[in-house]
Amino acid sequence: MTELIEYFSKMSPFEAGMLVCFGASWPFAVYKTWKTKSCHAKSFAFMWLIFIGYISGIIHRTWWAPNAAIWLYILNGALVFTDIALSYRYRNNPPPKTASEG
After folding, report:
1. What is the pLDDT of residue 80?
2. Which of 20, 47, 59, 92 is deepest in the core (most CB within 10 A)?
């Protein structure tokens, strides 16, 4: 039990806060892509850079400084990868119609 407490106490509250705040937007992005079946105006380069950043964080937390923050990196990375996969799936679909277009 003390090992588990030590594992979680090594996590920086600032790193965890950054990952939670930054990662909070990805479920909405995934939902929007899935719901509209369109990835109009999305940058694949940006999403891949973010995903590579999360992979780098996972590697860092696995080999150099293991702690519970790795789970936030994994969750965020999985959400970004899901959005990338959906975007590739729907990349040829037309952009969604606006309310004024009917």
Report:
1. 97
2. 47
